[in-house]
Amino acid sequence: MNIVLMGYMGSGKSLIGRSLSEMVQMDYLDLDDYIETCEKKTIPEIFENHGEIYFRKKESFYLEEVLGNYNNTIISLGGGTPCFAGNIEIVKQNEKAKSIYLNTSLEELVQRLFKERNKRPLISHTNSEEELKDFVRKHLFERSFYYNQAEYKIITDKKTSDQIVNEIMTLLF
Fold first, then answer.
1. What SS3 class is residue 73?
2. Hey, is 95 helix, strand or coil?
3. Which domains, and CATH codes, for the chain?
């Protein structure tokens, strides 16, 4: 079985993925890190040098590669991964994949993301919390259709990473 974590940027996919992998002794793979290693460029460099369309095509290619070649792995997707190139269908149709949507409120996402917006190409242009909130609100509206197709949904607000990991373990093990 592979556990596929999805949700908007800042929802805790990487943190929860790493914690869960330690707890259940499964391998952990962050799809963005995997792409950076394979492409030998950071995600911001890929966006800057090749654009989002190129990145999304590569992201889809590497998602299929990972789901096809890895077993007993917790995989954190990028925030946009499920929303492009039929990727949500790739995840849903993979028999060994269990998908989990880490559902985080708009307010909590803005609080987490504003501090680190300069490290994230999609939101680096925002200059205030209100501007970021408008941007994230629009994205959540567009992306929730895809995120909600996950097999399981976990609301992360006001929960520690340990509480979320325990909730996932209760669902799957």
1. strand
2. coil
3. 2-158 (3.40.50.300)
